[in-house]
Write a structure and sequence with these properties.
Blueprint lengths: L9 E4 L4 E3 L8 E6 L4 H17 L2 E7 L3 H11 L5 E4 L3 H5 L7 E5 L5 E6 L5 H13 L1
Parallel strand pairs: 3-4, 4-5
Antiparallel strand pairs: 1-2, 1-5, 3-6, 6-7
Helix pairs in contact: 1-4
C-alpha cells in the first residue's frame, strides 16, 4: 500500500465531532489503529503519547471495534493527548486491510501512504524516526 493513495474516511471522535482524512490534507499524519484489549497497543500508546508531545507531528489514534466509553476510559487512564477517532463497525479496519493490531500508518501531505508498521512500536527512537519521516514528507 505504500505509494498508493490512503483510503479516505470520515469518523467521529470522542467529542462527537466528525474527523476526516481530508482534514489533514497538506500535512503529514500518523494514524495508529488500536483497541483497549490489545496488550501491544496498551504498551505502545503511552510511548506514542510522549512522542506526539515532543514531535509536533499530526496524529490520530483510531480505536477499532469498541464503543466510545471503552475508548474514553483508556484515554483517561493513560492521559492520552492526541485525537482519538472511533471505528466501531470496523469499516476503516477493512478499508486499510488491517489484519492485526496495532498498526501505524504514515500518510504524506499529498495523501499517499508513506509506510505501514505492523505490530508494536517499542522504542522511542523508532517512533521519533517515523514521525521525522512525516516532517520530511
Amino acid at each position: 500500500m505504500p505509494g498508493h493513495e490512503a483510503p479516505a474516511f470520515q469518523l467521529v471522535n470522542l467529542e462527537g465531532k466528525k474527523v476526516a482524512l481530508s482534514d489533514y490534507k497538506g500535512q503529514g499524519i500518523m494514524i495508529n489503529f488500536w483497541a483497549s484489549w490489545c496488550n501491544p497497543c496498551v504498551n505502545e500508546l503511552p510511548l506514542l503519547n510522549e512522542a506526539y508531545k515532543l514531535s509536533g507531528v499530526q496524529m490520530l489514534a483510531v480505536n477499532v471495534g469498541e464503543d466510545a466509553a471503552a475508548a474514553q476510559k483508556f484515554v483517561e487512564r493513560y492521559e492520552l493527548q492526541f485525537p482519538i477517532a472511533l471505528d466501531p463497525e470496523m469499516k476503516l479496519k477493512s478499508a486499510y486491510k488491517i489484519i492485526g493490531l496495532p498498526l501505524t500508518v504514515l500518510i504524506a501531505p499529498d495523501g499517499t501512504v508513506l509506510e505501514r508498521h505492523q505490530g508494536e512500536l517499542t522504542d522511542m527512537a523508532d517512533i521519533m524516526g517515523l514521525m521525522n519521516r512525516l516532517k520530511e514528507g
